[in-house]
Amino acid sequence: MKILDIAFKDLTRSFRSLFAVGMTIVAPLLLIGLISLAFGGAFNGNSDLPAVSVGVYNADRLSDTSILENALGENIRSMFFDESVESWITARDFSDEKTLRAALDRREIGVAVIIPPDFSDRFLAGERDTQVLILSDPTLTIAPQVVQNMVMAMLDGVAGGGIAIETVLERQQLQGIQPDPNLISSLVNRYSAWYRDFQRDLFHNPQQAALVMKASTGEITSENPMQQMLGLMMAGQMVFFAFFTGAYSMMSILEENEEGTLARMFTLPVNRTAILAGKFLAVFLMVIVQGIVLIIAAHFIFKIQWGDPWMVVLALLGQVVAAAGLGVLLISFVKTSRQAGPVLGGALTAMGMLGGLFTANIAMPDAFNRLAAFTPQGWVVRGWKIVLNGLPINEMLLPLAVMLVVGLILFAFGAFRFHRRFA
Amino acid sequence: MNAIEVKNLKKSFGTIHAVQGVDFVARQGEILSLLGPNGAGKSTTISMLSGLLAPSEGDAFIMGHSVTAQAKSAKESLGVVPQEIALYPDLSARENLVFWGKMYDLRGSKLKQRVDEVLEIIGLTDRQKDHVGKFSGGMKRRVNIAAALMHKPDVIIMDEPTVGIDPQSRRHILDNVKELNHQGMTVLYTTHYMEEAAELSDHIAIMDQGKVIAYGTHAELIRMVGEQTRIDLTFNAEVEAIIPLWKEIEGVTSLDATDGKVTVLVDDSNRVLPRLIEVAADGGVRILSVDIQEPNLESVFLHLTGRALRDS
User: What pTM value is reported for the model?
Assistant: First the structure.
């Protein structure tokens, strides 16, 4: 009972602290709110990308011997000027690369697309070192990805078409049929026209563009991919702040030590282990409360569909154990509450970045993903991705097991250190 | 019955011997003051009594329960008022008392009733809903005491509860201590203010350098210095050169000089004071003030240690 009393007292104090409430609840919601507003507002569940301003410099020209009617560069360029995307992309042509880069520097455009000379011929000849250069305003996150994805989708389609035509020709040759150059040219141009139309349909609105982009990252699509992306961002922020909450809640033991109330508690007929248990329980409860509030708030404010409630419970359980465990361990190494601020800020931010909490919605290189697996945060955010992508429970078992085992080991080690220090 | 019994209590921190074999008793229902300068070992002694520190040697008993072998029982009989304010500033006075009461297993109506009683005792009933962080130093001190009274302990230990507060709050606290004692509580009161020890105590244990150097009632301790009078002198210049000369004056039994102030114990002030002034004048030192006092605990400490209580 006294353990509960101590935990309740700690929770009461935490919820009366503006700093604690700010860090626990307000900051993550505010951040997601700002991100959501940056997308044009996701509060009504119909979030749109803000208008994307694209500048194009197309130096690609067909050689006289080309079998194409239109250069690939022109196809890429025309995607951004097509009426199907004019509701969300405003495009401008530039006469040279220098002017284009200058416009980007002046932030007159958000994304610059540079198509080099002879791109079509070299691309079709299989020269993979030739590439469309995409430059972007570093403050933008989604728009450059969308533009890059549109270009990549176009080129992948062209490359795929080329392979298909080559296969047909090889089979014809094997069967002794001589390829008709006019037929090849016709096939290529018909395929090119079809694919251009397909692209128009594919990117006819930003929702669709985001859907394609998510599909290209190898993740499951949903009916509202913008919401799903916000969900991943929300999960990243929630995990980041959950780990802060775990550590800052545990910091109360340092503050009580400095305020003299911990020593006073030790003069009471209460076992010291029970006193520490009460403090630990408060940390767990705080992270649980934070998680529940954020999940519910994100659902109602940002229309984030978290998915299967039981999967949410499992992910939250893992998050709570991992965050509380790491919080207890980190604080056990800190001597004073003054030390704690910079130590926690540095350690948790670095681990959060390594764990991929700020890039939860972006497909990262494999090396980065492998690095993330060395942090508890990486496993927690992996669990949330599984939940948000609607994957089956068997996909959750490994991340959950890692979260629980790692969290409990960290907790046990931290608790041991506290017990040795105070009890 | 002895409410507190301390037997050969010792505490060392590495090579520092903070408490070096302390013995004293406090009978049930009395006020015992531990008087001594900062660093005398008072706080370390009561830290051992209250279970914060484990003794290096020896033992102490609270209402017959060993603080080492029966710590829980000893703590149940004990209320501790720490020297620093040990309260939660972001909780109200009432919430603080409720929390500390729960730690003593008080629940429900019994807890509510006791909180009301204690708030009445400390005179803060009308401020009970205010956060302690908004209180004045004196009010915080009163709540600090109240938290130790929640379970109606047999023994209450107060560690310098009047340090750094205004005279009005100090008076309130001293009156509280007397009232608690009248209700039957045994009080162990540590202080370095001799007036408080003199006013409150049935017995006084004077501590210095980790040892109890004198124990007795106020009257018994005063008798230790006999009929000696204390003279405090201040000067306009350094007096180190003439101190050896003063010590040789017949009738001077003890002398302490610190920070331009000299405290002298003398057998007969009428006879010795003129000689002190004469020697000072010969040495070119002008006396700025003279204060002659009847024997008190300060005199006792000076008599026993050769140092003034205020300087130690």
Answer: 0.66
Give yes or no: residues A333 and A399 share one domain.
Answer: yes
Domain end position, chosen among A216, A245, A274: A216
Please indicate, yes or no, if residue A75 is contained in any of the structural domains: yes
Domain interval for residue B169? 2-222
A268 interface with B at CB cutoff 8 Å: yes
pLDDT: which is higher, A23 or A106: A106
For the sheet with B261-266, list strands across it: B252-258, B261-266, B229-235, B287-293
Q: Do A14 and A252 touch, CB atoms closer than 8 A?
A: yes
Q: Mutate which of A6, A253, A267, A275 to test chain B, going by most B C-beta atoms within 10 A?
A: A267
Write down the pLDDT at residue A38. 63
Chain A (158-217) residues lying within 8 Å, Cβ to Cβ, of chain B: none
- Please tell me the least confidently modeled range out of A18-22, A140-144, A245-249: A140-144
Q: pLDDT (tens digit, 9 = 90+) per residue, B287-305?
A: 889 988 877 888 888 878 8
Burial class (CB in 10 A: 0-12, 13-18, 19+), B287: middle
Task: Provide the angle, in degrees to the nearest 10, between the axes of the packed helices A309-332 and A393-422.
Answer: 30
Distance CA B169, CA B141 (A): 8
A9–B75 C-beta distance less than 8 A: no
Alpha-carbon gap, residue A57 to A376, rounded angstroms: 45
Q: How many domains does chain B have?
A: 2
Which chain B residue is nearest to residue A257, measuring alpha carbons? B86
Q: What is the DSSP letter of B126?
A: G
- Chain A closest CA to B137's CA: distance in Å? 15
Residue B55 near chain A (CB below 8 Å): no
